[in-house]
Amino acid sequence: MIRKHVVIIVLLLPLSACSTFGFLFERLPWLTKWQFDTMYELNDEQALIVEDGAKAMQRWFIARGFPDLITDLNKLRTLWQSEDRQAALQFFDEQAHAFIAAFMTTAKPYLLDLFMRLDEENLQHYQRYSEGKQDDWFEHLESDAAKRENRAEKLDDWFGRISDSQSALLDEHIALLPDEYAIRLRNNAQWQERFELAVLARDRESLSSWLSDFSIWWTDDYRQLRLDNRQQWQALLHDLLPTLSEREREHADERVQDWIETLEDVL
After folding, report:
1. Any idea what the Cα angle at residue 132 is, between residues 125 and 216, rounded to 5°?
2. Fewest CB atoms within 10 A around its CB: which of 47, 119, 120, 263?
3. Taking the model in full, what pTM does it have?
4. Which of these, 227, 198, 4, 192, lies nearest to 103 by C-alpha position?
5. What torsion do the CA atoms of 76, 8, 159, 82 make, to the nearest 10 degrees?
6. For 150-163, what is each residue's pLDDT tens digit?
């Protein structure tokens, strides 16, 4: 789950259509420090590393991150409006991964400096934090219905409220996979264990490799689970896209335009 906290843009983008985005972005160093302190209970030296790193990332967003993202979002709108919507989704997926990779490349030195200064008390604090968050992180895996509701909310965000016939497609394609909840728990436990060992051994090389590729500490079952879930989602979208009404297509286009305008306001 650390990716959700390390990749700050994942936390920011859902807010991008809100009037508060600029306000929050201006306070990114404080918000980042607060989040990491909640996770690790930082001392003053550690907090300063996080704050300096967040300021550097703030500069990166202004100089490179947001301008590149605006360019990509405009290209996405062009593809979507051309009605080649499968190509639009593929482009969105590829560019999202590229954006996160660029973010991590810039953030990596600061994260490494922090991780090399974490101690056993910090790690114990994160264990308690993680245990307290697991119900929230994995609540959508408690049943088929919970998983479908989670996916339906994502579709509603993009297209507005989907129709009954589109909900039927969701029921057809989305279901819990065998042992999905347990696999997620085991994977969470494994990467945390390896992270703790690397931190306490001051193994900068292992931590650096992990920040470049989170999958190196995944379990084999989780790796397969991700592939199976991706296939579920892609099969759903393949059947759903041709059913979109004009209103639903416009809703998605307007959402992207809102992102563009909000990011431009920050610049």
Report:
1. 70
2. 120
3. 0.88
4. 4
5. 0
6. 999 999 989 998 99
